[in-house]
Amino acid sequence: MRVTSMLADIQYQMQQSQQALATATQQVSTSLRVNQLSDDPAASANMVLSLGVSANVDTYTSNISSVTPQMQTADSAMASIVTSLNTAITLGTSGANGTNSAANTQAIASQVQGLLTSIVAKGNTSFQGVYLFGGTENGTPPFVAASTTYTSSVGTAANSLSVGTTASIHGNGTLLTPGSVTTITDAGGTGTFTYTAQAGDTIKNLTDAITQAASAGTVLPSTVSATLDGSGQLVVADSANNLTMSSNDSVLGGMTATNAKTATSTSGSLVEGTTAFVAGNGTAMTAGSITTIGDASTGGTMTFQAKAGDTLANLNAAIGAAVTAGTLSAGTTATINAAGQLSIGTNSATDGIAVNTDDAALGSMSAASSTAVANAYAYVGNSTVNSVQVGESMSVPTNLPGNQLLISGANVIGSLNELITALQSGSATQIGAATTAVSTALNYVSQQRVPLDNTISQLNAENTSLSSETITLKTQQTALVGITLADAATNLSQAELDNSAVLAAAAKIAPQTLLDYLK
Amino acid sequence: MNDGILQSRDQTAAIYLQQMQELAHEISIAMEAIAANKLPRLQESVARQEMLCASLATMANTVSEGFSSSEAPLRSGVDTSVEHRIRAAGSAIRELNLQYAALLKHSGKSIALLSLLCSSHTGQFQEARGPRLKHQTWSCEM
Amino acid sequence: MSLNTSLSIAVQSLNAASGALQATNNNIANANTPGYTREVPILQEVAPTTEGNVSLGNGVQIEGYQSIRDGLVQTRIQEETTAQSSANAQLSSMQQIQPTFTTSTQDIGTDMSALFTSISNLSTNPSSTSSQQAVLTAGQNLAAAFNTASNTLSSQQAGLNTQVTQDVSQINQLTTQIAALNPQIAGMTANGQDGGTLQDQQNELVLKLSALTSVSVTQGKTGVTLSTGNGTPLVVGSQSYALQTTTGTDGMTHVLDENGADITKTITSGDLGGTIQTRDTTIPGLLTQLDTLANQFGTAINAAQAKGYDQKGNAGQNFFNVSTTVAGSAASISMAISDPTLIASSSDGTAGSNGNLANLSAVQTTALASGKTPANAYANLVYQVGSLTSAANAESTATTSSLVQLNDQLNSVSGVSIDQESANLITYQQAYEAAARVVSTIQQLFSITMSMGTAAAA
């Protein structure tokens, strides 16, 4: 036996048993068999995948709990609509029995009106800020009382001018003559300010250039300003220094010195034959904005999404196309009024529309006063259905478009409108027919509930399935990398025993070796 | 009738686990034997490893049928904790086997060279003068 | 136990020839000095003796064989030391890299999952600001995870550059010392003097050098001649040849020979070789995979964004800033949007539509250009890192065991005839062959065991 070799052997064994001890200790404290990738590369890789699946299962579960209350709210709104329709039928039936007085039928008509209002209100149910029956246009109430005229809050300039008309235009828009030269020499500045008009330049470009030079403060001092006065004349003034200004542009008509510090253009108001740039149909719309027009008579909805470069002219063209297609009633037009506002209207007192927009160029659209059409509602949502994934290969629709529910199909709103009109007219035949139509509408709404109820059941079932899948995955993950406390403890005891044995052996061998060696 | 099959499957799994653990232990013993130059011990261990491998291979099918499948685990499955331990033992064996294979490679090279030295020896050694015979230039066919 | 006491007992009880006594005294005094080669008392002048049942046979032959065998074992010790150092260098690096690629804590895989979770949550209420913000946060976390992983690998490389410089400096110190000893040793041997202690010192230095790089050792009349594995001279006689380092165009520290020729690629073992291997091959390999994943994932998400509209009805913009070249993608990937309304959830331009979120979610289940889904690509990376670490660990353990075995052999006397020794070695080889066959059987058995039932997720 050699001293050096024994020590090396002992050291080696001690290293091994200490390594095993460290591993066993780590396993006890983490409950993991695999504490670093190298402990089991394949298990580690599989963990990545298994954890990914777990994360998805958790997401599906969370999605279910998000959409379920939403769908239940929609379902209960529909239940309420069915109840109201039932009441309407009862009222209609009693109204048709021919024994009512005129006052009675009027009273019944009012009640039905009340039911219509409450049904529309249900159609406008919202849940956490989202209108459930608006399709994906769900930021504002989808059912709007119809009027014959809608107007934008933001005004644009008039779009046509006749000979001799003096129009107050945005004078800044007046086109300058291309190539014309305008100069300013100011005692408070250095050199001469010169402006040569390019094709397309307006007075605004000129005044901007003057303002810029003034703020730069070199050629023109900062005390210079350029404005248009009430007569539309260009006025350039220096509050502190003398200046002289001249222009060969006939649009300005030349500049005259009002005083040593002020120059004014000769021309102010529009001269016949001058080309002026006006906004109007040419007003640019905001890229990405959406403008919706719902028609209470046709039940249709037109949606216009502006692209970059679109102007009101494009919107108008779209309206025209929608009329041709029958989405909007014949005679629906868009014009710009004297105040420059966009006005959309029908040409019949009984055809109503509603308009919704998010385009800042228009501001907001509102019904012109006294243009409301009684008992008429238009739909300004859309028909798009969102769906949400709630399982590996399971997605559910999460909304029912309101037009599908209350307009197309059996036209709930339309049939109630008819019933009200019939009651107001007093004709028992008409009332009877209208009531039958409402009955049809009720069946239709009931049918609409079925898929929704089915989906809600499906979600519940899926939830249960996901719970058990979660357990399966956790079990799988434990199998991959986990270790039970009992097993870890057993490993640790074993490792401690082995370690003690090695240490004891080392203690015995070390002192003996030398003596053995010397024998 | 079913229970009889279930029991024997559970028993088989338990034996499978035990033998896997033994196999892991044997690999450790073999590595220690190599490090300590204890040939007989190595030979014994390799023989035991061969036996264990044969036994495990025979049982593998039976045990595999009993492992939990992706459908909801039925009563007839192998006890999951045994399943865990079998996988843990498998993983330990993988790691030990890697070290074992590497050790055989390295150590095998030493043994092969010594063996060649012996067989190329024809008594032709050039010995340096003097009391110290520490270093000599030698060569042999490899 | 006092060494002195034992020594005095030993001296009194010994009854040996003076040479043997001197040798034994030396042995005791130096027993624990590393590298001290035990001297074999000269047997050739002694008549053939019998020890126990073994006949020593021809003393000269045994003596010659013994010291040549020892020389071979010593050479193997050097080789294994080189291999061990290389394995340890690689292991050390991999152990520092490994924690970045975890499976469940702020790692790339977990953060990718979290991003898809936030996108799916958003689908239940696409105009919810808090849900939108959660998507941005998840995107930010993922980008940061990529950045961190990339930085870990790069800073490893930087550290390894320093290691290369240090190793080369140590190599040069050692070769200088070794060369200085050569003339002294050669001189002593020529004069028939005892050069043993100096020889032992030199052996120890050569062993230290072996730890740094693989060394080819030749004994000659002028002492020991050393060169690197591929022939670059290190020590010839009293002359040592210094290596140099320089920063290459790739930003890495390169190793040059004395004439300035770049020998970096030729150094394949020892601490220096292991360091270079990790720095120039292993880490770049991992970085490429990481960069590819970052680049392809970011691009796929951006493409999905482009298919839809944001809250204002405009076409979706890039979600991530992704480098145009694959290289560096993981380090540079960042969020391109910070406004929650820019998430392109809509498929029809309305703020309430969630139709385009399905396209974003689809990135999770669609194969990237590399042919793998994002999760599979990451799992692959995890497997690689784990396997590399595991392999380095196995090599480290194996070479350590191998060294224990070799030191055992060096310190034992064979004491049997060459024929017997030869027979033993052949038996050993057969045992190894049998063991190797069992190794592959065990490997198969492992594969079978791990694929039982549902061993892994799809």
Gross morphology of chain C is elongated
Question: How many H/I helical runs of chain C?
Answer: 11
- What is the gyration radius of chain C calculated from CA atoms? 32 Å
Number of helices of chain B: 3
* Helicity range of chain C: 55-70%
Gap between N and C termini of chain C, in Å? 63 Å
Mean pLDDT of chain C: 84
- The neighbouring-strand order within the major sheet of chain C is 3-4-5-6
Biggest pleated-sheet summary of chain B = none
The helicity of chain B comes to: over 70%
Overall number of strands of chain B: 0
Number of strands of chain C: 10
Order of helices and strands of chain B: HHH
Q: What composes the largest sheet of chain C?
A: 4 strands, antiparallel
Distance between the termini of chain B: 65 Å
Identify the most extensive interface between protein chains: A-C, 65 and 78 residues
Estimate the global geometry of chain B from the Cα principal axes.
Answer: elongated
Please provide a brief summary of the model.
Chain A has 519 residues and is α+β, with helices and mostly antiparallel strands. Chain A has helices spanning 3-30, 41-95, 102-123, 203-216, 312-325, 402-406, 412-425, 428-481, 485-518; strands at residues 126-127, 130-131, 143-147, 149-155, 181-186, 192-196, 224-228, 234-238, 243-247, 255-259, 262-265, 290-295, 301-305, 333-336, 341-345, 353-357, 365-367, 372-379, 387-391, 394-397. Chain B is mostly helical and 142 residues long.
Provide a descriptive summary of the structure in words.
The complex is a heterotrimer of chains A (519), B (142) and C (458). By secondary structure, chain A is an alpha+beta fold. Chain A is 46% helix and 18% strand. Chain A is built from 9 helices and 20 strands. Chain A has helices at 3-30, 41-95, 102-123, 203-216, 312-325, 402-406, 412-425, 428-481, 485-518, and strands spanning 126-127, 130-131, 143-147, 149-155, 181-186, 192-196, 224-228, 234-238, 243-247, 255-259, 262-265, 290-295, 301-305, 333-336, 341-345, 353-357, 365-367, 372-379, 387-391, 394-397. In chain A, α1 packs antiparallel against α9 and α3 runs antiparallel to α7 (412-425). Chain A is flat and about 120 Å long. Residues 69-76 and 123-142 of chain B have low confidence and may be disordered. Chain B has helices at residues 2-35, 39-66, 80-120. In chain B, α1 (2-35) runs antiparallel to α2. In chain B, 39% of the residues are buried. Chain B has 3 helices and no strands. With 142 residues, chain B is mostly helical. Helix content of chain C is 61%, strand content 7%. Chain C is built from 11 helices and 10 strands. In chain C, the strands form 4 sheets. Chain C has a 4-stranded antiparallel beta sheet with strand order 3-4-5-6. Chain C has a two-stranded antiparallel sheet with strand order 1-2. In chain C, α7 packs antiparallel against α9 (357-365) and α7 packs antiparallel against α10. The longest helix of chain C has 62 residues, at 129-190. Chain C starts with a helix and ends in an 8-residue tail after the last helix. Chains in contact: A-B, A-C, B-C. Chains A and C meet through α1, α2, β19, α8 and α9 of A and α1, α4 and α10 of C.
